[in-house]
């Protein structure tokens, strides 16, 4: 009996010891995970708030350097196949007014570089330069709306000197849309029937099905009030897949669609992309955009070239207007009369690299640093979201734009 109790006690100790080992192991992992998370967050804050100009590169004479070197510190959308020839094309063919600049990828030439370009989507906090000469410029580069930029950027105060984005208040503007007023207004254009007996049908080529601004909720109601074709990943019909180029798909849709839904995936300051640009180049469907009150569409798009969905009380009211518009060929064609005064174009001298080169050669260019990048990049963007309950847009909280990720 005594032997039995000894064996039982031994097995009990062994069982408890096994449990303790597992408990200790799990506890250690948990503590380690918490430590890593805290250290990572603290490192972000420490790095961003302690960044100072140092003397590491101060001995280099940037003023006499020819050409000025522009170092792309990051890749662009993780694409290593974007060549130096591509970035330097406008310098090599001298289409930039200031062309004595050169784009490089070689990080070993950090101190010789007059500007460093950081594409926000590709920034790695573990591989960022810790030093900057007083004459160097660190450039924030992004073509994305606020919610698609990494959240840690909100803590990168006092790091960037210049910005290169689609925003009109950027230091260098990287616009998706190019148009201008003609030097000479054209006379009466040959009479053209843009409607071509098409009915009131709306086309939408889309792949982002769950957007930050809830545009899909608007389109869902619109599709119940008017004939609408959705092409792409968000289509519920397998046959509505276009395996051609975007331009070819739009051309195909224009055969029997008179309107195109050019809603962006973000209703934010100055964010207008190729969705509108494609339509003013094709000149076959009237683009339907969503103009929010906080940015001036009149400066960014051609007057009378689009229909603003936000001017209607509801998606159903917009559908009624579209149905009435196709009943009158003259009224429909008025949305294409802008061609008398304006034209779509691509101007290589307007690219941000041309402007950056000009600023680098300007000895009187004032010093600048963004000491509150969170305010400029996120708060000033004034992001909005469609609300079906209100039949309009509502502000998106700042913290949500910072941490949001598309599904």
UniProtKB/TrEMBL annotation:
UniProt-recorded name of the protein: Fucosyltransferase
Transmembrane portions of the chain: 20-36
Enzyme Commission number, as recorded: 2.4.1.-
Compartment(s): Golgi apparatus membrane; Golgi apparatus, Golgi stack membrane
Domain named Fucosyltransferase N-terminal: residues: 68-176
Principal cellular location given in the protein's record: Golgi
Keyword Transferase applies: yes
Pathway: Protein modification; protein glycosylation
Fucosyltransferase C-terminal domain span: 196-376
Lineage: Eukaryota, Metazoa, Spiralia, Gnathifera, Rotifera
Pfam families linked: Glyco_tran_10_N, Glyco_transf_10
Signal sequence coordinates: none
GO molecular function: fucosyltransferase activity
Keywords: Glycoprotein, Glycosyltransferase, Golgi apparatus, Membrane, Signal-anchor, Transferase, Transmembrane, Transmembrane helix
GO cellular component: Golgi cisterna membrane; Golgi membrane
Similarity comment: family membership: Belongs to the glycosyltransferase 10 family.
Membrane topology term: Single-pass type II membrane protein
């Amino acid at each position: 009996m005594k032997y039995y109790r000894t064996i039982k006690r031994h097995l009990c100790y062994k069982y408890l010891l096994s449990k303790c080992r597992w408990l200790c192991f799990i506890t250690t992992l948990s503590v380690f995970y918490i430590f890593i998370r805290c250290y990572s967050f603290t490192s972000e804050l420490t790095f961003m708030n302690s960044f100072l100009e140092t003397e590491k590169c101060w001995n280099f004479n940037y003023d006499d350097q020819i050409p000025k070197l522009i170092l792309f510190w990051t890749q662009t959308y993780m694409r290593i196949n974007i060549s130096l020839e591509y970035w330097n094309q406008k310098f090599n063919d001298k289409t930039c007014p200031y062309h004595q600049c050169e784009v490089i990828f070689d990080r070993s030439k950090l101190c010789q570089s007059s500007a460093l370009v950081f594409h926000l989507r590709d920034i790695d906090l573990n591989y960022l330069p810790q030093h900057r000469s007083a004459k160097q410029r660190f450039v924030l580069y992004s073509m994305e709306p606020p919610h698609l930029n990494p959240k840690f950027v909100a803590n990168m105060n006092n790091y960037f000197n210049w910005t290169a984005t689609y925003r009109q208040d950027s230091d260098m503007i990287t616009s998706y849309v190019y148009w201008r007023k003609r030097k000479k207004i054209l006379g009466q254009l040959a009479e053209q029937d843009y409607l071509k007996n098409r009915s009131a049908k709306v086309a939408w080529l889309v792949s982002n099905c769950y957007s930050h601004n809830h545009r899909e909720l608007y389109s869902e109601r619109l599709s119940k009030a008017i004939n609408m074709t959705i092409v792409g990943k968000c289509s519920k019909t397998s046959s509505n897949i276009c395996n051609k180029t975007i331009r070819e798909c739009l051309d195909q849709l224009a055969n029997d669609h008179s309107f195109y839904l050019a809603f962006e995936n973000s209703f934010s300051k100055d964010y207008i992309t190729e969705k509108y640009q494609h339509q003013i180049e094709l000149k076959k469907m009237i683009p339907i955009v969503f103009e929010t009150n906080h940015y001036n569409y009149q400066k960014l798009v051609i007057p009378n070239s689009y229909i603003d969905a936000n001017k209607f009380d509801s998606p159903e009211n917009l559908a009624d207007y579209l149905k009435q518009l196709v009943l009158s060929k003259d009224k429909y064609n008025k949305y294409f009369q802008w061609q008398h005064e304006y034209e779509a174009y691509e101007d290589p001298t307007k690219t941000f690299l041309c402007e950056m080169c000009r600023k680098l050669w300007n000895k009187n260019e004032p010093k600048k640093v963004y000491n509150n990048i969170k305010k400029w990049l996120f708060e000033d963007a004034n992001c909005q979201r469609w609300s079906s309950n209100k039949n309009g847009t509502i502000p998106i909280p700042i913290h949500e734009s910072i941490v949001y990720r598309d599904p």
